[in-house]
Amino acid sequence: MKDSNPSIKDSNTAKIDDLAQNTENGQGEFLTTNHGLRINDDQNSLKAGERGATLLEDFQLREKITHFDHERIPERIVHARGSGAHGYFELHESMTPYTKAKFLQTPGTQTPVFVRFSTVAGSRGSTDLARDVRGFSVKFYTEEGNYDLVGNNVPVFFIQDAMKFPDLIHAVKPEPHHEMPQAGSAHDTFWDFVSLMPESMHMIMWAMSDRALPRSLRMMEGFGVHTFRLVNENNESVFVKFHWKPVLGVHAVSWDEAQKISGKDSDFHRRDLWEAIDSGNFPEWNFGVQIVPESDEHKFEFDLLDPTKLIPEELVPVQIIGKMVLNRNPDNFFAETEQVAFHPGHIVSGIDFSNDPLLQGRLFSYTDTQLSRLGSPNFHEIPINRPIAPVHNNQRDGHMRQTINTGQSSYHPNKVGNGCPFQAKASEGGFVAYNKRIDARKIRARSPSFFDHFSQATLFFNSQSEVEKNHIVAALQFELGKLETEAIRLRIVYMLTQVDESLAARVAKGLGIAVPPAPELPLNQSIPADGDPEKFQPTPMVSSIKMSKALSMAGTVKDNIKTRQIAILATDGVDKVSLLTMKQVLEDAGAQTKIIAPHLGFITPNNGNPIKVDQSFLTAASVLFDAVYVPDGQQSSAALAQEQDAIHFINEAYKHCKAIAADGAGVKLIDATAAGVKIHSAGKADKSSLALGVVLNGEATEFVSAIAQHRFWEREKSGKVPA
Ligand code: HDE
């Protein structure tokens, strides 16, 4: 039997081997009750006579239905919708000068990981393509215990203090009276909250950018967000920010596309991740760190502890220290992806926290939420959560306890049990919290160093390409356009003036309103009852860094077409050589192709044996592909030109700025579309078509280069085609 879940040979499989102890497979086995009794009839309940009432005695029925009745657990309060995968992290650069964490010492060390990607606001069954931040959680199963890096695909956050988290989430989740909208922020309560909390403005810029619409979970960055600490053997500490950089680059889809994908395949990202791993195209990320010496803590124009700020890479470069590879799909979604429990407080010796007040609040929240979600303090015993490092302590009992702790003592100190389990000295790996000196008064307050709310929002906006800026404007127009309360729109547009005047003006124009003057209310409404509103207003600041390349997706990796999905439109009479030659070139370059025809089964080419169709127009859609090719073939092209679905396919691919190629008579199909009219009006000379990502009768390699560009956003300038 084919192993449907292969691991690559050189990866550390310690966690997979550990999980194997709990796997079950009924192949070749008898059906039994949960208590091991073989079942003779799983079709009928036990009755008093064939037409009689069911008997209470029917333990088989009762067991089966009772289990079913209890199958659901609460979904995560945030990040409910997620997809997971196994893999490993390999260290390339020793981090010994900075940290004593064992998995970061010796280059070549591999550590098993389980990763879960998620959207934030939607429910468990919501669409993958919501405009939303994505969670990026990594559980490292190190030999010293589990280390969880629970990050996002955006490097900053909406709020500065954990106290505001429930408010933020209440505001963004579906509104409480009618539970709408699902998985979206385009509604009054979210923007009402944002309009009163200027600290959210930097994150809003990211959330309204194309970062919130990833093409693939494999094509997004990850960030630890908070500043953490690394601590070395000499108890010296540095600050650190963590980065994941995808080897395939950072790519997005357009908003129109995202909305359509949500209808055509709401599991688009989950399926993409699954299929990539299943086909051996293992997703990879480089792991990077920004290190800041403790002595530089106050050297920046922002506070390192403020989670609404990033450290521009121009100030502190990202050093790549290793790589993560995801090489195995879970065997069981519930057991692994749903039951995995992340916690920023799961750290190992050599990694520690900063005083970031958002991080500090998270340290309470994550265990607490698992208690209600997974239902027991023994959630650490669930196979996906248990460490590969041994666990010995005096914690006992509780719902669903699995471990059978033997021996007489369950307390420390003891003599009855020979003092075991022992405490570990620091030299033996015992965790010692970094002994930072704290000399402070107890105070409920926010540091004035946290009061610059706009300078990095402006930095982000200024760092975007023209197209990216256009998309931010359109996103804001969409989101604010959905609001019912005009006053919220006005407050947000005013807030945008603090980021960039032209941005505010453009958004206002789309909303049909004038940019409002400064409101009478103080901008920041997040003020303690006895606070002087004046003292809580944003500090005007200008970032000394004007542009940061790393913040734009425009310059990302565009040198390959690995795992890109290419549609080949064809029907009877297609030229087989033309079709197969292009298919081969694309697949040799690492792309995946699908032949799409008006019907499933086979099509008959004008030269050779029938060709198997992969999908019909009924189940395929251009939004599920990165590019489209129309091969030569007079009869095929003429027939497709009569198919509205084929015409729509090409128009939509054009509208979404994807690479399009056609050869021979295939060009006639392009000509029959609105996209063809646009291409003509742009001047049909091969060169200008190429600049638009359209390769007509060109070289296959030109099509490959065009697909690698991901999108030809330039096309948006000449107006949309109807699709
Ligand atoms: Fe979370 N967050 N969060 N969060 N978070 C949860 O824990 C919370 C924050 C993040 O794939 C919950 O197990 C508080 C920042 C991810 O299973 C919960 C605060 C960042 C995931 C929780 C934050 C994150 C969660 C819900 C502010 C980026 C999904 C289910 C103080 C660095 C993990 C769960 C997974 C999940 C609380 C802020 C990322 C309720 C209180 C900032 C990726 O504990």
From TrEMBL:
Pfam families: Catalase, Catalase-rel, Catalase_C. One of its GO terms (biological process) is response to oxidative stress. GO terms for cellular component: cytosol. Residues 32-420 form the Catalase core domain. It comes from the Bacteria. GO terms for molecular function: catalase activity; heme binding; metal ion binding. It is an enzyme of class 1 (oxidoreductase). Keywords: Heme, Hydrogen peroxide, Iron, Metal-binding, Oxidoreductase, Peroxidase. Its cofactor is heme. It catalyses: 2 H2O2 = O2 + 2 H2O. There is a cross-link at H343-Y366 (3'-histidyl-3-tyrosine (His-Tyr)). Heme binds at R76, R116, F165, R362, Y366, R373. The active site is at H79, N152. PANTHER family: CATALASE, CATALASE-B. Decomposes hydrogen peroxide into water and oxygen; serves to protect cells from the toxic effects of hydrogen peroxide. This is Catalase. It comes from Haliscomenobacter hydrossis (strain ATCC 27775 / DSM 1100 / LMG 10767 / O).
